[in-house]
Amino acid sequence: MALVHxxxxxxxxxxxxxxxxxxxxxxIALAVPFVRMAIDQIFGLMS
Length: 47
What we know:
This protein has about 45 residues and is mostly helical. It contains 1 helix and no strands.
């Protein structure tokens, strides 16, 4: 029982870390098209 109880918080911590990484990747994936459009506009203004 003690071992099971000890391992549970570690597993929960790992899953929260995985969730955080997934959220970060999702934000980056959503941001990429906007960043590309912004870069295109900047180059358009410069050239």
